[in-house]
Amino acid sequence: MTVVEETTTAPVEAPAAPEAAELPDRPRRIGGPTRSGVLSLTGAAVSGFCLTVLLFGELAPFSGVLGFTVTAYLAFLAVYAVLTGLEEDGQAVRDRVMTVVLWTAAALLFSGLALVVGFTAWRGREALPHGNFFTQDMQASGPLDPLTHGGILHAMLGSLIMITVALAITVPLGLTCAVYLNQIPGRFSRFVRTIVEAMTALPSIVAGLMVYATWILILGMQKSGLAAAFAISVMMLPIVIRAADVVLRLVPGNLTEAAEALGAPRWRTVWHVVLPTARSGLATAVILGTARGIGETSPVLLTAGFTAALNADPTSGPMISLPLAVFNFVKSPQPTMIARGFGAAAVLMALVLVLFAIARVIGGRGPGHQTRRQARRTARASRRDTARFAELHAPGLTLFEADPQAAPFDRPTGSTTDEDPGQKPGETH
């Protein structure tokens, strides 16, 4: 009998075609300037400028400073992309070009802010050094008086009173409405969110007219700082609600789920978990609303009137704010009044900066970041909890002995205090 043995042979692989030598992998640098990058930027800037000069001067009938700037910038981006593409791949080229575009946008925004602040401070430099500018009102001063007479004390006090009353109205209502929109979804919450979004684009003059018609014409009240605060709060409320709603949506859902799993009611979860986690963002929402309300002019003019004297009572008599004072100062043809207007505008910007700093301090840091004081407080609480748990789990010490007020179901098994009063001795359930 012949046994045929089958042998399996592995297939012979064909010789691989010779491949080009692969370049070693080099990590691409994503931050910091390089020599080639600086040379590419400089060469692209010079090339774009020269190309634009050639187009506007010789080849095409173009003119205008704006057109020249835009054309030079586009030419700069095109040349920079070409120069970067000589050394990098397509992904790196797109990354470099978008980096330049974003840096350009940031530089434009910062330049615009610096221009506004610098121009305002420069035009108001004649009025700001005088001490009476901050300690006097305009009751006994006129347009022809020098800068050593009169000031904006009445306007500063009026703005602070109006914005304080408006914040006292807006912050509780705005945060409560944002919590409602975030925690209680439904048809009515969608309707409220739609109304809030529509109110965000409400013109300020409409808010002033509404308060003027209801508070002054219908109810017969006089123009006052309180009426102006009502109008300002109408403008601030949708800003605070929308910003706070967005911030509350960013709170991780597992935090609220963990709190409710431990048996905490919804209101306690919101008060002790949701709001503290979003405190920094809520402070930002209040800042945005304050910045919107403190710069309003038309609602104050309609509801608070105008006065050149100091009035510290928001419920009686006309009251003026800093934006309205700036408007009245600048529209005068006298140079001293114009200087007072720009000085008042500089003071208004400084006031907004101070309020922003106060809100940042109150808001604290973002979620997960603690100050040194908060870290020390947390460490002390942890040490107290550790000592308490150590006492509860001490050898030979039951839970009821460590805590006599413990609940009956927490007492150790076999305790006679848990027996039924009607149970006979020796019986068991």
TrEMBL record:
Compositional bias per record (Basic residues), positions renumbered to this chain: 370-381
Membrane topology, as annotated: Multi-pass membrane protein
TM stretches of this protein: 36-56, 62-86, 98-122, 152-181, 201-220, 226-248, 269-291, 342-363
Top-rank taxon: Bacteria
Domain ABC transmembrane type-1: 156-359
Gene3D superfamilies: MetI-like (1.10.3720.10)
Keyword annotations of the record: Cell membrane, Membrane, Phosphate transport, Transmembrane, Transmembrane helix, Transport
InterPro entries: MetI-like, MetI-like_sf, Phosphate_PstA, Phosphate_transprt_permease
Species this chain originates from: Streptomyces lannensis
Cell location: Cell membrane
Similarity section: Belongs to the binding-protein-dependent transport system permease family. CysTW subfamily.
Low complexity compositional bias, start-end: 1-21
Region feature (Disordered): 1-30, 366-385, 393-429
Coiled coil: none
Free-text function comment from the UniProt entry: Part of the binding-protein-dependent transport system for phosphate; probably responsible for the translocation of the substrate across the membrane.
Protein name: Phosphate transport system permease protein PstA
Pfam families noted in UniProt: BPD_transp_1
PROSITE patterns: ABC_TM1
Key word ATP-binding present: no
